């Protein structure tokens, strides 16, 4: 992702939009601090299509199912007795 100062983004707005489509999200900075991200409409819609964080946290089913490795085998660290 490329970083643009607000001043450069204003001066080269068309180039900023082209970069969003060609390279993906672009960071905007003000006085060196990141303040925003500009992204393509396609990427925005893709992000909006999934459930929100609130919906994920309020689901009835277990939230740890996605954390279990395939096959249900967990690797455990062997600790030597003292």
Description:
This protein has 82 residues and is an alpha+beta fold. The chain has a domain of 51 residues: YefM-like fold, CATH 3.40.1620. The chain contains four helices and three strands. A three-stranded mixed beta sheet has the order 1-2-3. The longest helix has 11 residues. The chain starts with a strand and ends in a 25-residue tail after the last helix. The mean pLDDT is 85.
Short description:
With 82 residues, this protein is an alpha+beta fold.
CATH homologous superfamily of the domain at 3-53?
YefM-like domain
Instruction: Name the beta content range.
Output: 15-25%
Span from first to last CA? 49 Å
Helix content: 25-40%
**Count of strand segments:** 3
CATH class of the domain at 3-53: Alpha Beta
**SSE order:** EHHEEHH
The class by helix and strand makeup works out as alpha+beta
Unreliable stretches (pLDDT < 50, length at least 5) are: none
Tell me the Rg in angstroms: 21 Å
Q: Widest sheet: strand order?
A: 1-2-3
CATH topology heading of the domain at 3-53:
YefM-like fold
Sheet with most strands: 3 strands, mixed
CATH architecture of the domain at 3-53: 3-Layer(aba) Sandwich
Rounded mean pLDDT is 85
Helices, by number, come to: 4
Q: Give the overall form.
A: elongated
């Amino acid at each position: 992702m490329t970083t643009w100062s607000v001043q450069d983004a204003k001066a080269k707005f068309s180039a900023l939009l082209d970069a969003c489509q060609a390279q993906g999200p672009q960071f905007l900075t003000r006085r060196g601090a990141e303040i925003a991200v500009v992204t393509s409409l396609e990427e925005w819609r893709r992000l909006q299509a999934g459930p929100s964080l609130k919906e994920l946290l309020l689901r009835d089913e277990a939230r740890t199912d996605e954390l279990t490795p395939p096959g249900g085998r967990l690797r455990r660290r062997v600790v030597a007795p003292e």
